[in-house]
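Protocol step 4 of 6: structure prediction from sequence.
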Amino acid sequence: MKQVKLADTIAHAIRDADKRYFFEDYTKQADAVLAALKKAGMMVVPREPTPEIIEAGKNSLKYGTQRPGDMLRSLYQAMIGAAK
C-alpha cells in the first residue's frame, strides 16, 4: 500500500472543496489542520495498521500479570506512536 502524506490528502480535499478561479497552495491550510489536531491531543492514523505499527504493538506487550486496561493502554500508545 502506498503511503500518502496526510497533509497532501487534506490539501487536496481543501483544494477540491474550493472552486475559486485562482489556485493556491493548500499545504499551509493542511498543516494548520494537523497542528490544531495535535494541539487537541488527536492525530489521524491509517485505517489499517502498517507492519511497523503492528511490530510496535507486539513489542509493547509484556509477559506476566498485567491488568487488561494497563495492557491495552500501553499497546494503544505504542501503536499510535509508531503511526506518526
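Step 5 (inspection) to follow. The CA atoms of residues 7 and 44 lie 10 Å apart.
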